[in-house]
Amino acid sequence: MDWLKELLKKLGVEDSKIDGAIADAGKEIPKHFVPKSQYNEVSTAKQQAEKDVADRDKQIEDLSKTAGLSDDLKKQIDQLKTDNKTAKDKYDADLQQIKLDNAITAALTGKVHNEKHVTGLIDKEKLVIGDDGKVVGLEEQLKGLQTSDAYLFKTEDKGGGGGFKFKGTSLLDGKDQSKGEQGDEKVGSFGKQLAESTKGNEGLDTARESYFK
């Protein structure tokens, strides 16, 4: 995150505090944003699936315009319709699975010791994607695991604001979390600027949300 390091330097943050601030940001960013490589991969798969469906629709339309259809041609059209429906159903199912996987990953990142192990304990058959796009049933299962297998989860430091805290410099309030004292005011100022800069990602969030609906 060289861009972040340069921004901190421009704000006058001491070099000794920059690495800690970048480390904290590196832990928080994956909780709120999908990696660009993952977004591109899903976007490419979506575009290809849509193209395949459109191509089949055109084939069906072209064949349907042919006068005096023979029995063989009618069978060919029926087969194309079946293949088209199968491809669309598979695409919809894959899209739902991607959304469930992303929701689980987002819910577990930074909160468990082994994401792969905890993911395997979640019964995906009981998860439902509501009309609003939210995954229903995930929170209840995670709470159940926290009760029955608490050792799987990292201990949260709920001092201060009650949220998940990391030791070291906080990017949001400009305080040294390990000492409880007021830190460099410029670091606090950076937190505000970083929050403002994330507004530039709203286009990506909108694109992602429209894709997953």
Automatic annotation (TrEMBL):
UniProt biased composition (Polar residues): 38-47
Basic and acidic residues bias: start-end ranges: 48-57, 173-187
Region (Disordered) location: 38-57, 157-213
Entry-linked Pfam families: Phage_scaffold
Name listed for the protein in its UniProt record: Phage minor structural protein GP20
Organism, as annotated: Paenibacillus odorifer
